[in-house]
Input
Amino acid sequence: MKLLYLLAFFGIIPLSALAQTNCDSLKLSGLTSSFELFQDSIAYNSLLQSKQSAFYLKNHIPARYSRASINYQLLRGDLMAAQDANQIQLAQLSTEGSSELGKVKLFGSLTYSKVFEDSTSYGHQTRSNPSSPYYFGAPAKIHYERTTYAFQAMAGRSFWKEKLDLSLGLDYKVGSHFSTNDPRGSLSEYQFDLQFVAAYNLYKDLKLGMGYSHGYGRESVNIGYKNPRYYESSAYPEFYNHLINGFREWDDALRNRIYDNKFLRNQIQLGFNNSRSNNGHSQIILWI
Output
């Protein structure tokens, strides 16, 4: 089992994101609310779920809050999956917050991640789609560096005497991954999702909604060699590039070492919200 060393974690640092005002007490109140939000585990878990859909923007994301965090982790061990690394270093910087612009409620977040993997085998993957049994790999231990940016934004407004809520959501992720020794992997990825949600407030505590989201993405993989002897000669089997396709024996992929993995997503969402209880909101997602 991997042993996790948490070397440094600069907690959750609430930052004031209040609108400009001359009243210092309002600023202090907003800052205090941010602290209380992240100290309450139930409220924080509710916030995590609410960020998954624009359906929850109005009722379950605070009107004004902000957060910034820095996280560093070191993972080391030998008992692991064949595709994992013996050592992983992760550094992550993230920030998020919400505000109101007139009658429009806004939410946004940005996360930057940098990962260093040492002694990775059979791991020419982006790590974003681990369930896909289709990737390149070799027995040789290599060093990988991975950089990803993830951006999320939501906007919503109420109409018709607060009865009708219309919301938009956007998610975008882009990443770059490369190894520094043979066989050298060069991988790029992006994912984009757009969501539209319409919800109707039947009563004060009851809301029903329906949404549609469309997404697409792409993973591009290219495996190269600085030393051609590693793929031209049979004397170096540990450097052979293999195509792992499914859960069977792999095939040699010494010449054709490029592939693209494309994604296309469409879904309908049905939402139900009961705000009488702290965690009484739920969502049903139907895939097309």
User: Anything to note?
Assistant: The chain has one domain: 3-287.
